[in-house]
Amino acid sequence: MKKTIALLLTAVMLLGLLAGCGSAKSETKTLVVATSPDFAPMEFVSSDENAKGNDKYVGFDMTLAAYLAEGMGMELEIKPMSFDACQTAVEMGSVDMAISGFSWTEERAENFNLSDYYHAGDNEDEQIIITLAGNEGKYDTAEKLAGQKVGAQIASLQESLTKEQLPDSTLVTVADLTTAIMQLRNGDFVALAVAKGNGSAIIASNPDIIESGFSFEVDEKYTGNVVMMKKGADDLTAKVNELLAKAESEGKYGPWYEEAKATAGIEVSYDDQGNAAS
């Protein structure tokens, strides 16, 4: 009888331990992040054909996403989708946030919770036009771009800037920047509006593409990036802001950006003190 009771007690203890393990596992939540991986050096697909899961996606924003998830004690799940779909996914609540090189805009501030700014080198400081190498000197002013078709990613800062500062050009919106490069070659438009850092990455991988010489005027409020969350997600926004401040105070942004540029094939130059030059 004593032996039977002892065995029953042991079984109960084992069940308790297993239940405890199951509970601990279920308590580990997942941070689901949407991104459009066509925007090197911020987010793009790894050149490693064997990479799987989150490892397939690299760049500054992907490093940031991992940092945020770790800081929240959560697992990370990256969900790749088109740039405009990222915003829809946040709005619908199918993801927790979108990290995809988003600039602050008044419209986004009205419809989403936006984080404090984070800064990835020169990526957003300058907004430029790229074109085919054979067009050197042909599209370096707004006047020369008048009457021409100019591409820009839909729902992007570049789309807004093209509408505002190149009103005499014909805007052609594109969903995917990788496809946009093929469209540029095919003559769907003669120039493509991009962020400076993204333009450098595109040129590094495509020797037939150059900067046109035209740069947009960029208000300071557009030179940082923000994390996009659902309207009303105030606790999550506060935690993200806390971790962004921590990352900045720890000097994370500079090394992350230089690593992202190197991964994207952008040549990194250094000054006499060995510091990476923007």
Give an overview of the whole structure.
The protein is an alpha/beta fold and 278 residues long. Helices cover 41% and strands 23% of the residues. The chain contains 10 helices and 15 strands. The longest helix has 26 residues, at 2-27. The model is unreliable at 1-26 and 270-274 (pLDDT under 50).
Q: C-alpha Rg, in Å? A: 23 Å
The dominant shape is globular
Q: What's the arrangement of strands in the largest beta sheet?
A: 5-1-6-13-7
What portion of residues is helical?
40-55%
Q: In brief, what are we looking at here?
A:
Helices cover 41% and strands 23% of the residues. The protein is built from 10 helices and 15 strands.
Structural topology:
Blueprint (H helix, E strand, L loop, with lengths): L1 H26 L2 E6 L2 E2 L3 E3 L11 E2 L1 H12 L3 E6 L2 H10 L4 E6 L3 H6 E3 L12 E6 L9 H4 L3 E5 L3 H9 L4 E5 L2 H10 L4 E5 H10 L3 E7 L10 E5 L3 H16 L3 H11 L5 E2 L5 E2 L1
Parallel strand pairs: 1-5, 1-6, 9-10, 9-11
Antiparallel strand pairs: 2-3, 3-4, 6-13, 7-13, 8-11, 8-12, 14-15
